[in-house]
Write a structure and sequence with these properties.
19 strands; Immunoglobulin-like; single chain; DUF58; 9 helices; alpha/beta; 31% helix; transmembrane; four-stranded antiparallel sheet
Length: 402
């Protein structure tokens, strides 16, 4: 019975009020003509049947249209509008007069405030003509928004039947977290030939450290001949070991760490701002945020933030272990969590990585009111609003450098 009701509902939706009126009039005229014998009603019944038949034939003719949806670009920032193009080519033998194309947005999103469709009025399209119309997607929250499929409400010339014809397949709009520009993370240069100087001493590198006496087995290419000639002993150069800068960004997706889901959005905005800084400095990058685990370009990481969600039962320590396996050559660890995170857990996360890995943690906690790091936790910064991040991070970097 459910399938029957669904079929009847679909048929009823495909017939317009005008079509239902003509069908009912034809049925009534047929009954009157059959039982009362009025020829006038028989003529009305025949006319109604012909009208419905003609409308049905015209309505069943295929619509030959080639259409495509494109977003420029395929991502935007939370709170900003997206821009897209609808390209339509008329392949019919007859012109199309100002079709109204409907582009539905993701109905599951609760932040569209009723604007769940975008309507685009096309110009007159003659045979073989192509047009491109631009449209805007209203500002939405972070996430992945499905735009489309694009289609039109198709009717016959008499307006008796209607259906929604799909013209273009849907596309995804990646809505990234809000970001602010921050200063350098204080990790030095990042090129392979200009890595971060570490405290480890190497006999073969580019960052000169000191001279020492030659011992058996040293490479003679590193002998400092001028000092050797002056002292009468062989001296060789020592170097600082350098490495390629590799930043690991670890975002806590445990709901218990956040007092409010909006705090998680702030945490993602902090992490995204750091990723943008990493992109400017051309560091290698690894992200771990729940199931979003990847080592890739900053654009891939920012798109991964669009898919990030809170997940009950998540463990920041397990995520840190995963990140350590993914990035054994990490030179910097950035951890972002909420105001409810246990400082002891952050300490365990820090110990997951080698001691020479630079560590910095952020707490997204709008209700904290802290303006500077606590004396006993200098590497833990509390961010109340995103606009505070540049100042806090800049003061931290200057303090570390000084």
């Amino acid at each position: 019975m459910t399938d029957v009701r669904r079929t009847l509902r679909r048929v009823r939706a495909g017939v317009t009020p005008a079509g239902r009126a003509v069908i009912c009039l034809g049925a009534f005229a047929t009954l009157v003509a059959a039982f009362a014998g009025y020829d006038e009603f028989r003529l009305i019944a025949i006319m109604c049947a012909l009208l419905v038949l003609v409308a049905l034939v015209l309505f069943s003719m295929p619509t030959r249209v080639r259409a495509r949806l494109q977003l420029h670009p395929a991502h935007t920032i939370a709170g900003e509008t997206g821009v897209g193009d609808l390209e339509v080519t008329n392949l019919r033998l007859t012109p199309m007069y100002h079709p109204l194309v409907s582009i539905p947005l993701d109905a599951a999103r609760d932040d569209l405030r009723g604007a769940q469709r975008v309507h685009v009025r096309m110009p007159v399209l003659r045979r073989g003509e192509t047009t491109v119309e631009r449209f805007e997607v209203p500002a939405v929250r972070r996430g992945v928004l499905q735009v489309g499929p694009a289609g039109v409400r198709r009717t016959d010339p008499l307006g008796f039947f209607q259906r929604h014809a799909v013209w273009a397949q849907p596309v995804d709009l990646y809505v990234r977290p809000r970001m602010v520009r921050v200063e350098s993370l204080g990790t030095g240069s990042v090129r392979d030939l200009e890595g971060i100087p570490s405290d480890q001493i190497s006999m073969s590198d580019l960052s000169f450290h000191a001279l020492r006496e030659y011992v058996v087995g040293d490479d003679l290419r590193h002998v400092h001949w001028r000092s050797s000639a002056r002292t009468g002993r062989l001296y060789v150069r020592q170097y600082h070991d350098t490495r390629r800068s590799h930043t690991v960004v670890l975002v806590d997706d445990d709901p218990a760490a956040y007092a409010d889901p909006e705090d998680f959005e702030l945490a993602l905005s902090i992490a995204a701002s750091v990723v943008m800084r990493v992109a400017l400095e051309q560091f290698a990058l690894t992200l771990v945020c729940g199931p979003q685990q990847l080592a890739g370009s900053p654009h891939q990481v920012l798109d991964a933030f669009c898919l990030s969600e809170l997940a009950a039962g998540s463990d920041l320590r397990l995520a840190a272990a995963t990140a350590a396996r993914m990035a054994p050559d990490a030179s910097q660890l950035i951890v972002v969590s909420g105001g409810g995170v246990d400082p002891g857990v952050l300490s365990e996360v820090r110990r997951t990585f080698p001691d020479d890995v630079q560590f910095l943690a952020f707490r997204a906690d709008p209700g904290s009111g802290e303006e500077s790091p606590a004396a006993d936790r200098p590497h833990l910064l509390t961010v109340s609003v995103l606009e505070e991040l540049p100042g806090l991070l800049g003061a931290y970097v200057r303090g570390v450098v000084l």
